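Re: beginner question about structure tokens

> Can someone show what the tokenized structure looks like for a real chain? I only ever see the sequence side.

Sure, here's an example I had lying around. Input first:
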Amino acid sequence: MFEQLTIVYHPLIEHKLTIMRDDQTGPKEFRELLKEITLLLTYEATRHIPTYEKEIRTPLVKMHGKMIEDKKVTVVPILRAGLGMVEGVLSLMPNASVGYIGIYRDPDTIQPVEYYSKLPKIDDTTQIFVLDPMLATGVSSSWALKLVKKAGGRQISLMCLIAAPEGVKFIQKNHPDVKIFTAALDERLNDHAYIIPGLGDAGDRLYRTK
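And the corresponding structure tokens:
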């Protein structure tokens, strides 16, 4: 149904995501769980990263091992909720660069409003991971992807915690070259463009702003 979508099925992810969905889960545990699930998603989302050979010496012999050039990786969280995913990615690729894109959804028009953008130097060989926990309408993520492409990015993946079918369709229509990795594909959007069943507003739950 969705060619560019990968749903990462794993008992640990399902367990942790269930706790995150629970409205009794507080911000401290919510933040920890988001980091942990992001780490598990990163394992799958980085399968395509190219490797190079490096000669090393074990305690016994010389050998050629495989390495990734994580200095050619850029992580781009969409503020604010995307910040909660950064540490999970950097725990596996600590030399990655980090850019920031600030977008909020206008509550009346449901359209994206950009208020901040700061990206490191990227080109068509940079492995880029855009982070947005909730892929709802897809409008904000699509806008961020457009900014990354304008800066020169071509090897782009979008990582999210939960996706709605409407958001996936929107991204695939506007960015058919972008791979999407998510922990769950939920049912639908409600009249206010929130994911159902979802987990509410990820930013508010991360930072207790409501």
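Each token stands for a local structural state, so reading them left to right follows the chain. The chain has six helices and 13 strands.
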